[in-house]
Fold each of these.
Amino acid sequence: MTDTTTDRSAEGLRGRIAAELERTRARTARLTEAVDDGDLVRQHSPLMSPLVWDLAHVGNQEELWLVRDVGGREPVRRDIDDLYDAFKQPRKDRPSLPLLPPTEARAYLATVRDKVYDLLDGIAFDSRPLVADGFAFGMIVQHEQQHDETMLATHQLRSGPAVLQAPPPPEPAARVTAEVLVPAGPFTMGTDADPWALDNERPAHRVELPAYVIDAAPVTNGAYREFIADGGYDDPRWWSAPGWRHRQEAGLNAPMHWRRDGDGWAYRRFGRWDRVRDDEPVVHVCFHEAQAYASWAGKRLPTEAEWEKAARWDPATGRSRRYPWGDDEPTSTHANLGQRHLWPAPVGAYPAGASPLGVHQLVGDVWEWTATPFRGYPGFAAFPYREYSEVFFGDDYQVLRGGSFGTDRAACRGTFRNWDYPIRRQIFSGFRCARDARPEESHR
């Protein structure tokens, strides 16, 4: 590669990073400027931080990784590092901390961002792992977008009038079959090629799977209402032992934010009540609820590998794509992402986003619970720090895949892995089911 070509490539990467930083910060501003300062500093649920904590935290992480580590510059505010350390400060305790007030938090973010733009103007994207292909900048973009989705979940939990606006998602544009057979054989799981992929997505490795059948769409509200109507919440046959224990202790009887409405159900979405629409994917259910529904339906949750093969494997070429539809970045025709809409789209709304096998809405709409606990892949190496992924490995966390309507395209791809406690349902979580292929199906 000539020096001129190298310079052009570096300028292109700088431009892309600057655009992503700006686009992400604009979303952060929309989420934090939609409410007054009283709402910013209030804790709307013990499960969540005050919005003002998330606001300053994203700035602090940007300072730590870009201004100090990559740039080697003097700290902006070393005195607040402990306040915004997510491991040192449990969410329930954050309201009592001497947090930066909203005006000071916004000024801090602006100062840090100015220094990051100065750094970006002159940085050499050399072979150092943190700066190669702009990795550290991509990591910060993804981190802020993840907190934006967390802040969106906080908005869903806050009381009071609606403050967020968005158009409804598109109507169905295709009929979707009930199930899809995924034939037996190997596929490549994970990635070595995506420059902004995080450590838990690596390395790429070969996985051999028997034939299985997976739902062509996420489980809908209508299907889930049948489970409720059939007494699914009251019958321990469908629940695991820890699931049944949690169902009783938490008094679960429907998805979070649902309430009875005459002979049906209503669903509170960002301060507005609407009738539950049967063809939308069910959202705000925990892993235990998803597992119980699957058992009631005579199925199971897919493993993480089964989910990823259905989402990425191309039977015509045998390769794994970046997204179900190919390697191109998501657009508004592919998936319900990026807070473009404020609830899941009905099944069949995104035919352009289907996988080669005909599996729909694998990306966007709802995070999908899988049957797999969160662990590292064979050959996993923590980078750039253990606390991003490795400290969460084990049986305490279940993997979720696919992203939700609140997930940004920068923090969502066919290899992206999310994880949470199996009791969590304030997140935008749903699921689809799978089952083993019958002998007559696996030999088609």
Amino acid sequence: MLVDSVEIELRAGDGGDGVIAWRREKFVPRGGPDGGDGGKGGNVVLSATHNLDTLSSFRFRKTFKAERGQNGANKKKTGSSGQDLELLVPTGTRVTNLDSSQVVADLAANDDSIIIARGGRGGLGNVHFVSSTNQNPFEATKGKPGQVINAKLELQLVADVALIGEPNSGKSSIIKAITGADSRIGAYAFSTTEPVMGVLKKGDFQATIVDLPGLIEGAHSGRGLGHQFLRHTQRVKVLLHIVDATASDIKRSENAILSELIHYDPILADKPRTLVLNKIDLLSKEEVRNLSHDFPEAVLVSAKEGMNLPELVSLLREQLN
């Protein structure tokens, strides 16, 4: 199951307390203040890795806390710092501070990282409070609390190509035919219920392709399944817009999905987009010729029969290079 959005609480470690202590040695019976400082609290760090493709590790656990700094000790010893807590997230994770509604990080590349919550400073021991009028201070400070951040993590899949289109347009069949990636394929709406990724390899050419669940009109406002996955189109370089070649009104089907992209994020309309008319094996030769005439910019294919798929792959190679 793809978990691509979670809300969690991140707690950095508190600083350790400074201490009140006195120098006590055999030949120094009236030693002065000797209390050390507390250690710093551990940070909470988010680090991106390409070895993960889901936020499922955050699905059931919602609070994560770094280690507290240790208290100071006598002989002016500073307490040990708390250990940082590093949390691994998939490459492509966007981090929003829910308290300020600000996007604080976009971990788009492998090994990107951010200190999302900083540990508190350690408190001061009584050696810091010596003065000309107070040679034996009974004073120390507590450690500072670590930051507490309520964060939303949103995964935007990092891929070269995204397949978009209405339910039953044949996207699953196309990605399986050109990459071997398998998803449930059926003659009913929403047979694909989560993104499916595959890798296309042809000689020295390689491209990552994601098949997004079918969009419908009104997806940008929450209808159907598409609104859950539109964010995954934002990082891709090329959009393959799949339309059923047997549809009664191809232009209307194309415009309906294009409108959803524009409503969700107008920038998506500027991405390179190729119209692919699938299922031409269900049409007569004359109907295919008419489609070629009416949609000269489109690539006409049959994923089921493998018709014109090499031409589609060559076009992708040209666009990505």
Amino acid sequence: MPRSGWTDLPDEVRGAIEARIGPVVGARSATTGNHADVAATLETADSKVFVKAARKLDTDQDGPEVWSLRRESLIAPHVKQFAPRLLWQQESGGWLVLGFEHVPGRAADFAPGSPDLNELVTIIHRLQAAHCPDVVELRVEQRWASLADDVSPMAGDALLHTDLNPKNLIINDDDGSIRVVDWALASRGAAWVEVVQLMPWLIMAGHAPNEADMLGRRLPSWRNVAPEAVALHAGLAVSFWERRSRNHPAAWIAPYLAAWRVWADYVSKAYAAPH
């Protein structure tokens, strides 16, 4: 379903936003992401702000997109060292709206040889050293619980973003700083799960699976992961995305599933014995 734009918001909602930031003179919708009905950079005469907005199902009932934004608003104060600042939030006209600091930059490049790969490893090091705040209630192993009797190898108390795809890492070319966006699926779990979630994105960017594996081994959590846990995750990831592709087909899922299959095939050979 196509994402709506700034002008599709009800007059009441646009009016409430402009009461905060001033008259909007330009709006540019985000082309990626799926955790909001509207995601756009709004420009006023003297500033820019990034807004994410989601429509409630009715006055007293949130839908999935609203739940996602509520999770983002809860974790935002705890990840200010990684993410754009949450400036404000409001509910009006049946919508929840979050206003974030506008961060100029580009999406990360995961291609082999990219200098952004060093930034990627650095930001994961920092994430895995951070405390997981109590507001993070999603447990990563529960995503897989319907597919296996025992998902306990994925359990833990590390702070996980779980979706560090290139579009969610914004690189500022002026100073090289990096910001992590879209925390809707922030979870707690075993630290190595953050690393394995990278593997399809690295493969899609041109890495052979063994190259992606070697990049992961720059992180202690991946060097220390049990081979059987990696094999379990690989099988469950393929099963999950095969089911998702049948039930909720979308153009991006096919290459993503293909990358998971490449990774699972590699794991079946490379992780057959302890390494």
